[in-house]
């Protein structure tokens, strides 16, 4: 392999430690806080809400393991997990091993907590997580560990306050629930009652991220998918697609043209066809399907407002000319089972070999650096150069 490619992962994860929630949660919820446990069949797990659900960490932290050893009932002990899932010092070493300069860091347990039915419990868990992420993990190396906060959205007003608090903590963006806790009262995300939240995000410079598996209808093995269980894997991107379509067709970006959103871990190779099909729908069926007057075509909103992260999606690199490549952001998804860790450099060398250097570098690091206002060089550093010479403007 040739010279390593400079890369930032736009979507990586922690495996929340056993005291992540317990030590910081609202005391009223301490007896229900997620806690670490050892299951006789699964090994290392996180117990949610006194056993309401149990998350196998062997599945969450399976990066680099042979596929035949990964499964919900494959016993995985704590010492088999990637220590960088909760230890920031170890995480920096894992970044070096994988050849990435920095990672935008999302939760793991927090992803599935988005689907918990108790809004107050979610709020308590997310507040505790945000403190842990800011104080114990991202705070250790904020230039390399780019922390994302969480909000339950029990109300529009509380969501606005949450965004301000997340910004104060030094976190760089917000992972949104696929469905707000108050959706029934405030409507879906296209409802104008949510406009103060979009305005607050734009004012604060916080990108809003919609991650797979946070919508309830995009779960692996979920019953609503037809046919064999494997078919459910192909549907995990649908939750993100539905959110993006809701915001695009709902005129959200007309009402707040500064808003930036990120479609996370749902791949990107499908987006050119989605854009084409969305424009087709407006042109040919807008007279009976369209219930909002849009200022532009759907594809134009995508090009200006929607970023997409992907890891092992060679197709995305092949269709860069069919969308705005400046909205694509590569990720390693470490330490999840879909991760390219510890072989990211080999994957990237193969997937990007046909690209012009400027397009490649935009996707591998520059787009992410600009979106989150990271202090990184305008071009990838050469051998012997410092990795931080001049800030990229936000």
UniProtKB/TrEMBL annotation:
SUPFAM superfamilies: Metallo-dependent hydrolases. Signal peptide: none annotated. It holds the Pfam family Amidohydro_2. InterPro entries: ACMSD, Amidohydro-rel, Metal_Hydrolase. Residues 123-374 form the Amidohydrolase-related domain. Keywords: Lyase. This is Amidohydrolase family protein. It comes from Streptodolium elevatio.
């Amino acid at each position: 392999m040739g010279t390593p490619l400079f890369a930032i992962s736009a979507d990586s994860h922690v495996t929340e430690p056993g005291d992540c929630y317990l030590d910081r949660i609202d005391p009223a919820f301490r007896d229900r806080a997620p806690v670490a446990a050892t299951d006789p069949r699964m090994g290392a797990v996180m117990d949610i809400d006194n056993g309401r659900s149990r998350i196998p960490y062997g599945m969450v932290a399976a990066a680099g393991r042979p596929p035949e050893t990964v499964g919900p009932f494959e016993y995985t002990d704590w010492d088999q997990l990637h220590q960088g899932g909760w230890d920031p010092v170890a995480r920096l070493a894992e970044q070096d091993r994988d050849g990435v300069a920095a990672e935008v860091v999302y939760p793991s347990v927090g992803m599935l907590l988005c689907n918990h039915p108790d809004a107050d419990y979610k709020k308590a868990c997310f507040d505790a997580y945000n403190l842990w992420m800011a104080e114990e993990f991202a705070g250790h190396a904020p230039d390399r560990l780019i922390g994302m906060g969480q909000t339950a959205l029990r109300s529009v007003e509380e969501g606005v306050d949450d965004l301000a608090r997340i910004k104060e903590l030094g976190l760089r963006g917000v992972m949104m629930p696929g469905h707000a806790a108050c959706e029934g009262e405030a409507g879906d995300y296209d409802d104008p009652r949510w406009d103060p939240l979009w305005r607050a995000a734009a004012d604060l410079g916080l990108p809003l991220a919609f991650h797979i598996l946070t919508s309830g209808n995009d779960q692996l093995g979920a019953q609503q998918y037809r046919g064999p269980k494997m078919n459910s894997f192909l549907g995990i991107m649908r939750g993100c697609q539905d959110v993006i379509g809701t915001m695009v067709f709902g005129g959200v970006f007309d009402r707040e043209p500064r808003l930036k959103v990120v479609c996370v871990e749902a791949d990107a190779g499908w987006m050119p066809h989605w854009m084409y099909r969305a424009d087709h729908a407006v042109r040919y069926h807008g007279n009976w399907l369209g219930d909002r007057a849009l200022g532009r075509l759907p594809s134009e909103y995508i090009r200006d407002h929607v970023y997409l992260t992907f890891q092992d999606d060679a197709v995305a690199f092949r269709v860069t000319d069919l969308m705005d490549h400046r909205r694509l952001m590569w990720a390693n998804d470490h330490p999840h089972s879909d991760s390219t860790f510890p072989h990211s450099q080999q994957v990237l060398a193969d997937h990007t070999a046909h690209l012009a250097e400027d397009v490649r570098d935009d996707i591998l690091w520059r787009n992410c650096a600009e979106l989150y206002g990271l202090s990184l060089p305008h071009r990838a550093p050469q051998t012997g150069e410092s990795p931080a010479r001049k800030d990229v403007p936000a």
